[in-house]
Amino acid sequence: MRRSTKLAAVVLSGSLGIASLAACGAKSNDTASSGSSEGGLKVGMAYDIGGRGDQSFNDSAARGLDKAKADLGVAVTEADAKTGEAEADKETRLKNLVTAGYNPIIAVGFVYQGAVEKVAKENPNTKFAIIDSASDTQPSNVTSLTFSEQEGSYLAGVAAANKSKSKHVGFIGGVQSELIKKFEAGYKAGVKSVDPSIAVETTYLTTPPDFSGFNSPDKGKEAAQGQLDKGADVIYTAAGSSGNGAIEAVANAGKLAIGVDSDQAAQPALAKYKNSILTSMVKNVDKAVFAYIDSAKKGAPFTGVKNFDLKADGVSLATTGGKIDDIQGKLNDAATAIKSGATTVPTAP
């Protein structure tokens, strides 16, 4: 009931909606408030669980937003999700952005699929983009920004297999979903391409509708410790900020971690563990976000599904720390095979 009241208040006041957005967890970064982008493009971003500062997925999206603000002069605002929130909260967050005049609106994460479809249908003149999700039922004013996570994860698997001394590696997924299974499938395929005898541990932190697996470092740490106890010496975690806990456990054990989404060895908050981060499977969400905003500013926003694969530099392996320099030739060969079509990476385990 309070959510409805807040939304009505915004409509009646005719304001920019900043008060309502703040009530929904928004962090105004809106240059229009200073007049520098008055009359220009206003971009709203609704983050996934963990928000800006997760050192991973959301931070990558945030970098794209920051670049668009700096390079394109657009006005922006950001709204955070909360662990355990209801579907109605996501809908309200998006509606408040619409009411406040933000267009386009970017939803970060597949958890927004239902909310984006509903709010987009109700607001056909507002453009939406959703990251990591595509649906046959979403309206034409929604663009899907997707990635070939399995391809980057395959390379992570090749790296893990070449660096494992125990011939035993691990994969930790935040939430057991079709998206995260793509990471798992690619990683396992990459490992097995090097040595089919290598054992691969698999652990998921939560299953839908519980999405806390993306924002629970304690669960990540516990899962990693369990895999370490079984003998894994290289662990790849695709779990948002939960991966921070996994990296901590792996570092404390003197083993190797593989980060995800952002170059985690270069993240200040993880600096004390950087020597234990072998590489990161970087999903260049920032490039996709910037490209989408740029297309909107030019008056021809992307439509349908825009996929960013290995060939398009949508995914890659980070080289910070130089720990994969000695196997770069093998990684390049694997990447070339994927790009040429000689290797088809599975999307399901």
What does this structure look like?
This protein starts with a helix and ends in a 9-residue tail after the last helix. Helix 1 runs parallel beside helix 4 (87-99) and helix 3 (57-72) runs parallel beside helix 10 (285-297). The chain has a 7-stranded mixed β-sheet with strand order 1-3-2-4-5-6-12, with helices on both faces. It has helices at 2-13, 18-23, 57-72, 87-99, 113-122, 149-163, 178-194, 217-229, 242-252, 285-297, 328-340, and strands at residues 26-29, 42-46, 75-79, 105-108, 128-131, 142-147, 168-175, 199-206, 234-238, 256-261, 277-283, 305-308, 315-317. The chain is built from 11 helices and 13 strands. It is globular. The protein has 349 residues and is of the alpha/beta class. Mean pLDDT is 89; it is low at 1-26 and 28-38. 40% of the residues lie in helices and 20% in strands. Helix 7 links the parallel strand 7 and strand 8.
Biggest sheet: strand arrangement: 1-3-2-4-5-6-12
| Topology pattern, helix = H, strand = E | HHEEHEHEHEEHEHEHEHEEHEEH
How many helical stretches? 11
Portion of residues in helices? 25-40%
Cα(first) to Cα(last) distance is 43 Å
How does the helix and strand content classify structurally? Answer: alpha/beta
Number of separate strands = 13
* Major sheet: 7 strands, mixed
The shape is: globular
Gyration radius (Cα, Å) is 20 Å
Percent strand: 15-25%
Mean pLDDT: 89
Residue windows where pLDDT falls under 50 for at least 5 positions: 1-26, 28-38
